[in-house]
Amino acid sequence: MWSPPGRGRSRSALAFRAALPCLLLSALESAPAAAQSLTPDLFNPSRGGFVSPDALPMRRTAAVLQAPSDAIPQPPQPPDPNDDPRKKTDAPATTRVGQVPTYGLPAANGASGSGYDSLNRKRQQPKLYPGQPKPKKPAGPGSPVPPATPPVSTLGPPRIAPPPSETANKTPLPPAMAGTVPGQPLRRRLKVDDDAFGAVGDYAGSFLIKGGLELSTGYDTNPARLSKPVGSPVFVVAPDLLVTSDWERHALVADLRGSFSGYTNNMPATIDGLPSPSPVEINRPDFTGHVDGRYDVDRDLKLTSQLRLRLATDNPGSPNVQAGLQKYPVYATYGGTFGFDQTFNRFQVAAGATIDRTAYTDSKLTDGSTFSNDDRDFNQYGGVGRFSYELKPGLKPFVEIEGDNRVHDQAADRNGYLRDSNGGYAKVGSSFEFSRILTGEVSVGYSARNYVDPRLSQLSGFLTSGSLIWNASGLTTVKFNTDTQIAETTIPGSSGVLVHTYAAEVDHDFRRWLTAIGKFTYGTYDYQGQNRNDKTYSLEGNLIYKLNRNIWIKGTLRHDILDSNQPGSSSQGTVVMLGVRLQN
Questions:
Q1: What is the pTM (predicted TM-score) of this model?
Q2: How far apart are CA 470 and CA 476, in angstroms?
Q3: Which residue of 13, 140, 186, 475 could cross-link 509, Cys pair, CB 3.0 to 4.6 Å?
């Protein structure tokens, strides 16, 4: 097609301008042409790929050889004209029989110490320090599922919120004390301390010794228990000592407790022109002590023994107190029990022989003379046996039988009665322990005593004995005790005294350092053969403030009532005391 002359010349000029740069580049470079590679740094280009080998994210390290398949592809090289494949000799291929192929990494290289090992090699156990506890094995198939929440304790109401002491800032403990040092031996768990303000004691060898001393003072409105009260200030000194052995086998325990009550005022020597039934000096000592020993022959046979001492006076208001005394005569009862304790599976037999002696000091009268109490001295020989069977843990019924013979130093007493006798008791009961809430022992039976003198009738009666402790709560404890005894008397025509005692006590801790104790005691004294019956009532309250483990402050208020069917023998008295207890 025809075109105008001007348009044709312009097209030729454009083609010439485009071909001119290509001709210049061809003249300057004689090597073959290649495309430019893209790199992180466009000002430092490299050939062979988009990323340089040093910048590859999955590059091999220097310790691992690269496989041919991992190498970076290189551009094809021209064939060598001197390399003629027809001139080569055929070489045999390398055998691979018995060789395990490797693919860059050895087998089970990534198992470490906890992963799966395809070679089933034995794991190397970690080294433990001496005394370091062994770690628990991880739960595997068949292991029980651990509880999601800790079990709820049945000892008390569930906790709604942790106490503030758990989240409070506490002084950090050193690792040695906290037990977090690797290899540190496990510390022996300490015994639970039920009394945070109780005496700690001291060790002397393998014996634990605890001692205390109470010093009290106050006022007693009727210390002699007279029908017409005569009061007096009073002070009491009461030491105590407890020694226990800390042995794996055998045992030895000594429990010694005493007191001395001193009164600053003297009682009248006569009342309405007659000798007073109370001594002029009414100071009274009181001591109770026993030492118990146990020798373990083997697991089922034990030899037991006890040495005991009782030092006291007749109770104020008792008809056994002579009229016209200057002071109370003191008596001492001492003796021992020697026996054995044999266990046959659930059946247990305990038996022992007993021997005791009771001796009185001479009475000192207001006129300066003395009166002998040798007719009240006697020896007692006897034996006791208990047979028990454990029905189940915490319940153990038993049968107990006792027999004895009393021989006085003088055949006839001051009134001409022959006081030698023989007797005993039999009782059945059970000891029990229910969830540590109610523990104790209760028994009932019958007691009887026959005298040589035919004028003295048989002394017999119902017997009760028991001791119960009820832990009502963590702060409140209820105690109940009952006991029955047959005591000697000097009343003409009376065989003896059948004594029943019942006591109930409630201890409550307002705080661990502030304790209130309420106690009620009821007793009956039956003088058989004389139709005399005395009843005693005692209501007591104590408040104890514990400064620390060594010093307590104690206040006491007690009211005593003696109700007798004999005219002029009833009395009442109130005692107020304040003191301090020192203990270690």
A1: 0.67
A2: 9
A3: 475
